Amino acid sequence: MLQIGDRMKKESIKTHFRRYRIYSKRSTTINHAFASAVAPSDKYSADRIDEILCQLDCVREGKIVCVYCGVREAQTWDHLYPLVKASRPTGHGHTYGNLVPSCKDCNSTKGNRDWSDANLVINAQNPDQAIRVHRLISLHLAAHKTSGNCLISHELMSVLEDMKAQIIQIMRNADELIDKHLA
Prior knowledge:
Blueprint: H1 22-38, H2 46-55, E1 59-60, E2 63-64, E3 76-79, E4 84-85, E5 88-89, E6 99-102, H3 104-110, H4 115-122, H5 127-143, H6 154-182
Helix pairs in contact: 1-6, 4-5
């Protein structure tokens, strides 16, 4: 008898049989690429990371745990404030003040929300943890300022936004050309 694991379902192959759309699959990637390019970023310091992990109380038995749930092992660094909102850069970036360890489940649940809104959703069934997370992250933000200011002028941002719009339009045009060819 065919044994199917818990993680993969045989029906998941269906996604491969749908028409791939260039624009719909990659417009978010393009928006994030432009936002990341203009976002502030700090220089890496192992000592500073160790300090932050201790401040956030995210080290347990030699493992880094998620700041939100406080239970699962962290697998990613979450941006407290997203890099992109409404397809535009927020000005927040890859800085010590904007990054915290997160498990994939909490990061996925957080989505594109600001951390305080996400905390209420993630810890809806655990108000004590929600209060703890709010206290820890508030202290973290106070110690490691994150400005939310773009590093480039409005004029340059306008030029970049035009270029991004052209790239996205080219992706849409490619989808239309493929549709016409396959019709």
